Amino acid sequence: MTRTIIRSAFGAALLCVTPLTTLHAEPAAEAQALDIAKRAIAFRSVAGPGNQTPQLAAYLKSVLVAGGITDVTVTPVDDTAYLVARWPGSDRAAKPLVISGHIDVVEAKPADWQRDPFTPVIENGYLYGRGATDMKLDAAVTIAALLQMKRAGYRPRRDIVLEFSGDEETRMKTSALIAEQLKNAELVINIDGGGGRLGEDGRPQFFTWNGAEKTYADFELTVTNPGGHSSAPRPENAINQLSAALVRIGNYRFTPQLSDLTKKFFEEAAKQKTGDLAAAMRAFAANPRDEKAIATLAADPAYVGQIGTTCVATMVNGGHALNALPQRATANINCRIFPGVKPADVMATLKQVAAEPKLTIRDVSEGSVANDASPMRADFVAAVTKAIGKTRPGVPVFPSMSAGASDSMWFRYHHVPSYGASPTFIKESDDFSHGLNERTPIDNIAPGIAYYESLFTDLSK
């Protein structure tokens, strides 16, 4: 997943706003959302033996059909499945609004958790369980919002298509299939991205919607030698040559970049900061070649990924025996590539920077495609700002770029605008996505339903 709440030290300098929900969420809808979330968590929708994603998809289909959304298909793919539900609009010529999410989760081993990860527990205002944050609660809130709209008699002008992929956390095979099927969409709301940050006092601080994500890429570097006996060293040594190349790559900094979206992010984020970091954000937004600003932002792990492409060594392997010269040494370089930059160009740069004639490099990326940023569409920006304004009045709203990958990647690959826009607000200390003891405050449910109703109505009418 790629829930992209920018988790820097926005902290004390942020606006603190008292939570207030001004839109209506029916008690029945709120109760339904919590019930769906609890039932969904109980399905062990994890890739591999015993994967219950198909059963979860079948359960969600039954909920949608019972609520009046009857055009629902569940498609098996290998050990998983994906769901596509369509609520027909009145204008058959209008392109559909797609609501995108996933129902698979990362593996969770009960022995490591304080509570069984697939037994939902509500405690001290939190829903515990694998998927509570990523992203079964969001899926449940979305379904409850759509069914509330259905009960209220709303009829969209354009089709509303709800889709849940079944292997977003692993191969993204279903993600690619869905995007291919729905590549005629007007735009996509990805409920697995964006979101709000609560301060440690529980007060909302800011909300970001995600309009871009960096391209994931893995490059395998290899140096080979004839080898030989370790008692007779030679000038050429595969491990030494690869190590020197890795040091050169580690010391290299890709040219910083600024897009319309990241420029807006830095301008707005600077308003929430003080001191050198705020100054660096403003300076970088004004001039992405400002060396002082670059140095400040590059030194901060929360922002180094926002200013351009990054590449880092993640795995090494070399040699075949303790008493032999290495015949082969390999390393993996993991890159997060700035939107609009071609992976082949990054690979060529790595080869040049490595400066090792005996080194070969190849792209070994799986489940990833290059994609550009989505445009900052006025209709989407207005709709999401309005929805947050009605449910979390006064909270700053601005765009962000994710360093991770999500299903949005596949839609953007087909040139369909996709925006991460989950309404879930959590504390930084409560963010356990992919980790142990995952939990989310259940007081997100009522404002989440109201937020989605506002957003989906404005973008489908």
UniProtKB/TrEMBL annotation:
Query: In its keyword annotation, does this UniProt entry include RNA-binding?
Result: no
Q: Name one Pfam family in it.
A: M20_dimer
**What are the UniProt keywords, alphabetically?**
Hydrolase, Metal-binding, Protease, Signal, Zinc
Under Gene3D superfamilies, the record lists: 1.10.150.900, 3.30.70.360, Zn peptidases (3.40.630.10)
Q: Where is the signal peptide?
A: 1-24
- The reply to whether Zinc figures as a keyword in the UniProt entry is yes
InterPro entries in UniProt: Bact_exopeptidase_dim_dom, Pept_M20A, Peptidase_M20, Peptidase_M20_dimer
Protein name in UniProt: Acetylornithine deacetylase/succinyl-diaminopimelate desuccinylase-like protein
Highest classification ranks of the organism? Bacteria, Pseudomonadati, Pseudomonadota, Alphaproteobacteria, Sphingomonadales
